[in-house]
Amino acid sequence: MVKSYFLHGGTEVFGLVASNTSNSLFDGKRAFVPALEDVYVWDVKRGEQTGMWHATGHYHPVTSIARSPSEPEKFAVGYQDGSVRIWSSQSATVISVFEGHRRAISYLEWDRDGTRLASGAVDGEVSMWDVAGESGLFKLRGHNNRITGLVFLSGSNPVSDPSSSTALPPASTHMLSISQDTYLKLWDLQTQHTVESIVAHRTESWSVTVVPPFIRSDGQDPDGNEDDPVFLLITTGGDGEVKLWTLSTAILTSGPQRTSDGQGFKRAIVHIGNLALNTSGAHGKRVSGAAAHHYTLRGGISGIAIAFQVGDRSVEVWRLRSVEELKKKQARRKKKEAAKSRKSEEKKETASEEQPITWLDRMCPWILLRGSGKITSFAFPPTSNLALFASAERPAELQVLLALSNNSVEVMSIPRPSTSTKWESLEAENLYKVVLPGHRTDIRTVCLSFDDQLLASGSNGSLKVWNLKTQKCIRTMESGYVLCGTWLPGNRHILVGTKGDGQGFVTGGADKCVKFWNFTAKKTPAEPSNQADSEIPSANRKALSLSISHSKTMKMSDDVLGVRYSPDFKFLAVSTLDSTVKIFFQDSLKFFLSLYGHKLPVLDMDISFDSKLVVTCSADKNVKIWGLDFGDCHKSIFAHEESVMRVAFESGSHYFWTVGRDKLVKYWDGDKFENIQTLSGHHKEVSSLAVSHDAKFLVTGSFDKSIRVWIKTDEPLFLEEEREKELERLYNQEENDLADLMAVRQQKLKESGKEGEVEEAEAVLKQTAETQMSGEKIIEAINLAADDLNAFQNFELVKASMKDQAMAKKLAPPARNPIFSAFNNISAHAYVLKVVEKVPRPALEDALLKKLTNRLTKQREMVGYNVEAIKFLNQFLETQHEKKQFYDDIDQKPVDEIRGLIGSTQKRRKVVI
Question: Per-domain residue ranges for the chain?
């Protein structure tokens, strides 16, 4: 009989505040931050988690987050596998999934009306998505490196106020893209080609932000050009570079314009100068982010703030001066020039000429923000959005969210700008912090209490205690660098290493010593707890507290890496730096066995519940199983692709767990030496492991600062099925890698000119295992329907050929496939439509790329069931009909008939409505 095991599955992740894989968003009350593969929603004032967006079965980390400007409850989230999910923040559910990139998403940007979404990837591709229609529009090729910024542009008339009216914004006709390949490109979205391409920086370009033109209340354009208002573009790069550009709106609306001499065309994007940042040592640091923010504060105060992330320690905030400030600045300039002109008539003539105010004159430093750790991203609340902020709810001061690399989030308040106060003297106030629910540094150890209700986790600087049921942090204690730890009997104390009888513990370290300690009760002065105690003299008031005393020391030849008592309290195992494990009798400390065979030091070890097996793991990527009776090596297993960090036996069995630097958690059978199950979910090295005393779950900690609980289910697991799943995953991975390689080669051939001209736009398609399976299901449904229709057609022919009509009526119809009976004897046409409807709309086009026959075009009855689905199928067939290599055998007549039936069905539905 085939041996079966129990399947383990992952649950929710805890111990995270914010990871550094993506940008964060802020709406004034809630912070939307990446948490590895999830998105957490934090109430920053209370420091509580109010939501979590988790896609079941998806373990790729979040790489970009963007919020819809027209529907604030709708968010776009990009992932490392190239997928984009549209989330509803109200229900925490996925609205739609877009698959079109083969590399990680690096940037997301919504259109102004929220109907289109642009996604940029690390391979330089930009895809345009129709969010309402749940389909890909086109893909733009022009960059050959990571996309770092996207901005939609509209060539319509500028608005009068940045806090904006409630009218629908005009549709965006152009888009800016910037990449690490140093290029800044202007795209025409209607013709899907590049209008202009310029080298923005000498080094990698990291961001682009736009300040649109605004008409002042006096009807004048502050940019000094009423006929052609311009956008202000700000780009950032390496070496502290910040460049200012202007973009002509006339070129966006009217197209290319000739120069005055008629010899060429005007450039749409013009460089007007560089901005010198005030951060100390800004030159040489990367300016990794820039954001122009239109803010509206309480009391009707509004303006434009422009923030730059300089390096990873500071955010420099600038602002655009108001009209009154510009006039005062110009008056002061005239006054200074007039004073100088008294000395020279030549200077007097120069002073009489009024100099125009430039964009650089309008830029004014505001404040310098510094976080308590390295800054990964920053975000302003959209105070100008009336859907999120009513006039009374707007803050009195501008706030900014800082997401830090040490797993924390801070909200800072920026004081209002003052013309009489120098910007260096302004200081931001730290309003809120979210720090308690996670460690600041990598987790090095986890251990479970004796009742499996509490979990202790340690890192450099802190020890935290968690309630496993609620996954809440209930205690945080400052400490040194915690490398290992365990609970003492009673679940009230935690220390490093314990002794099996609960009377003491043993420690080992780099001093080449193994030291033994005993617990003792120590009397300490106690505070009075009631009135009776207060009458006792303070010298006589004593309380017993737990203390320790050193009992003996055993010298070793090398540094001690680990110690372990056997469960029967008979042996003591010591691993040393010479890659061996020595076994001693615990009572006499006499040498018993030496386990040698690892090529690198043993990082961890454990002894089975019956004290018969010892399992060791090492940095040589191997796990060895030893017999404790004779010290022989039962089996040496190549367990992980990287160093094996921890190993632990499951209680009551010879099954054991291992974790490694390859981010995997593996389950093993110590008797049959087989890998039972491999669990993936961590995104960095897995450094710690703890198995529950009842063997129902295990807890792992990682350098990604997350803690994961893996629970044993009642679902059986068979090794053959598990091996088949692993082979299928490997096959899919190899297939995807091969497809990526072919795509890269094809692109290089096009760029070299061997495959003709390089097309800047193409269709958004991506074949995945899911879309291929969906296509196969559609083909299978069509084949079943065709067989069913043919059987009944032959049945009708046989009936018509019979001379005796009475016998023909008694003739039994052919037996149908049981699948149709399972669906309440559904018709063949309706069954095909039901299968098509189950395919997600964004993946339907990729699924239909499977070779279909013209049978699909002959299902007229399907039109009456789902007009939308059939209309899409009809459009798809017509599109592919133009490509002869796909549908050479399709007759145009049934396609025309379906088009007519769709129109009539839509008219009937209009009448019903």
Answer: 769-912
